[in-house]
Design a protein that fits this description.
It is a single chain. With 264 residues, the chain is of the alpha/beta class. It has 8 helices and 11 strands. The strands form 3 sheets. Strands 3-2-1-6-7-11-10 form a 7-stranded mixed beta sheet. It has a two-stranded antiparallel sheet with strand order 4-5. Strands 8-9 form a two-stranded antiparallel sheet. The termini are far apart.
Length: 264
């Protein structure tokens, strides 16, 4: 890490959303199937099963994962986005207003070009998602990791896409953040979380960003100790076996957990 910069300030100074989207989410990227198609299908399958219910959802994460909201548009009535970078909030605003330079998510769906029905459904869901987003706000990040806004009303579902391994500097801050973020959920509310396992860095435009290394045992232990009941956990081996020099994760974990009734 660059001398004089905190973990979070590295992202504030060097993170470039447009370059990140280009390198990891375009149709030509070798990561697109794993970064776009696979997680959207996982969410769609879970939500279609009827096991997640509610009206309100918070996306607690980073701009480059906004596509994970598309499968939720048929199941929630109101969405809030919490983002930690001002530049990303501006990018989101441009996307909501259909600015001509905003990222074109439809081109990411080329890998499923043969499935026109699925492709068209997700394209339609992007527009539905924009209509459901009622609020965008900047989340706070301190030395102990991301923190939840204290005055925000509790919601039915919290979607966290990789955020904690990006913004937490160590296991202590991960635990602290998980404890704090649970306050965003109602009792019985649903936590949907994606995590890269055993990832220590990510390159964007030749800059090396630090990532927090976690494994499945650690994540399960933290959720249990914070009063969550894991309903489903899927860990899938990394699809891309050629780009370890760019990002060194070993697998992707998706978790559906429910906040216990006695957790405040």
């Amino acid at each position: 890490m660059e001398p004089g910069l905190t973990w979070t300030s590295v992202y504030e100074k060097y993170f470039d959303a447009e370059k990140a989207l280009t390198e990891y989410f375009t149709a030509d990227s070798e990561f697109t199937d794993e970064s776009v198609i696979q997680p959207m299908r996982q969410l769609e399958q879970l939500l279609a099963s009827g096991s997640v219910k509610g009206d309100t959802l918070v996306l607690y994460g980073v701009l480059v994962n906004i596509h994970l909201l598309f499968p939720t548009s048929a199941y929630f009535k109101e969405i809030t986005i919490m983002e930690y970078l001002d530049t990303n909030l501006q990018y989101i605003d441009n996307w909501l207003k259909n600015h001509p330079k905003s990222f074109d998510w439809t081109q990411c769906l080329k890998p499923i070009q043969e499935n026109q029905e699925e492709r068209q459904k997700w394209i339609d869901n992007e527009e539905k998602t924009k209509r459901l987003i009622k609020n965008t706000m900047k989340l706070d990040v301190c030395e102990s990791g991301p923190v939840a806004p204290k005055s925000f009303p509790q919601v039915d579902c919290l979607l966290i896409p990789y955020t904690l391994i990006v913004l937490c500097k160590d296991h202590v801050s991960f635990i602290s953040s998980m404890k704090d973020l649970s306050s965003l959920l109602k009792s019985g509310g649903h936590l949907l979380m994606f995590l890269l396992m055993e990832c220590t860095y990510m390159y964007i435009a030749d800059f090396k960003f630090p990532m927090l290394c976690v494994n499945e045992d650690f994540v399960r232990k933290v959720l249990k100790e914070e009063g969550f009941m894991i309903k489903e956990a899927q860990t899938k081996p990394r699809l891309n076996e050629t780009k370890f020099s760019i990002m060194d994760y070993s697998s992707v974990m998706f978790i559906h957990a429910v906040k216990g009734k006695d957790v405040q």
